[in-house]
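Annotators were shown the component list below and the corresponding predicted structure, then asked to write short factual statements about the assembly.
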Amino acid sequence: MIALNLIRNEKERVLQGLQKKHFTAIHLVDEILTLDEVRKTTQKQMDDLLAQQNVAAKQIGGLMKEGKKAEAEAIKLQVAEWKASTETLKTELAQTEQKQFDLLVLLPNIPSQLVPNGRTPEDNEVIYTVPELPTLSSTAKPHWELTEQYGLIDFELGVKLTGAGFPVYTNKGARLQRGLINFFLDRATAAGYVEMMPPLLVNADSGFGTGQLPDKEGQMYHATVDDFYLIPTAEVPLTNIYRDVILKEEQFPIKMCGYTPCFRREAGSYGKDVRGLNRLHQFDKVEIVQFEHPDKSYNTLETMVKHVEGLLKELELPYRILRLCGGDMSFASALTYDFEVWSAAQQRWLEVSSTSNFESFQTNRMKTRFKDSSGKMQLAHTLNGSALALPRIVAALLENNQTASGIRLPKAIHSFVGMEIIN
RNA sequence: GGAGGAAUGGCAGAGUGGUCGAUUGCGGCAGUCUUGAAAACUGUUGAACUGAAAGGUUCCAGGGGUUCGAAUCCCUUUUCCUCCGCCA
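Structure shown to annotators:
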């Protein structure tokens, strides 16, 4: 949620930012500002009435003590009138605030200066790409054939147990998952991220805090009996740890990491996009999250990008890094880098990480603040990134490293997976 | 799931209808003292909205009610604690 103050003080910048994100309902900005004026006026009227009542209440108290009942009763009559007016104003105020809030949550975050203009994935800026893409023999298989050949994943069994998009990792396939999770977690903790194991179901407040609610309600599984949501990413519980918290400046940076399964409904997906491991309803991911001082969050974003890049290098996968254009970035993000690995058999790039600075978009919703050196309350900045999401990494590992004798795993994960080759 | 009890400022803990936004202690911050630190002493120390400021309003788990007036009384939701039941 954009801070109301930003709209009040830097309306032009907000408007430009919204346009860059290809947000069309620009008129909302003026509506919000109009409502703001209405709100102030109403509040002032109400506050004045309340002030009068407070004074009167004290008078009555005094008169009662002195035994001047009649005079007290006279004032009571007056107060009753004020009270009725106050009620009306109170209702008006609540309605205005609700309207303003409803509009405010519709606005996406303002993109940073670095975000390239553009609307579609083609407009994303490639800031790094491997010098040369590997070429495989004509007999190279896509990962969904390899997982079957080596007995790593049973997609059909998942369909039986749950439905499409819920694979069962079997035998060495399960071992590979566990090894990769440990590898990613160890690298994250070595980089100073504190390991967390959060709940996999969250309440609506948490969903709101990170921006999944109300904007993306349909993307989450909803356990309606208890009104809990299955997390689409560890970002949700990890970031919400600091919801309604006032931090001390010296606590920055707060660095957390966590492995969780992630659940996404992915309604409407079909075709080659969802084949095999390309898009699942349940998948595993290690997430890194930081709370940072506003002055430092962009430097921090760079360190997170370096961290994710380091993982891909260790995994010896061909990758590229994209700076997402205004039209392709997420609702809540101010700057996003996507990491894609080359799927040799499918001849396409697969997104394996999205690393973003949300600035104060999430903390404004969560009320995560700190007192700066001048004693002023400020919203903290949040950042997060996948480090990494497993399925597409597995897909790329299998496809790129397939040989006649089996799948050769990169050296970095040998000790984690307990295998050098899958055959 | 059943029966009781509780929820107050960063923490601990007073306050049971009328200057209570809240006594006090700890912690934090500033100062005195000190070569420095500690100790001691003094002062200061919640948030939101509004206002140029002075000030005003709101907030004692959340919501609703009673009253001229609620942290204080009533209803309700949530959470925590104790006991019982169930359970990996």
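Statements collected:
1. Residues 39-40, 43-44, 46-48, 50-51, 53-54, 56-62, 64-65, 72-73, 75-80, 83, 246, 248, 369, 377 of chain A lie near RNA strand B (CB under 10 Å from a C1').
2. The first strand of chain A starts at residue 125 and ends at 129.
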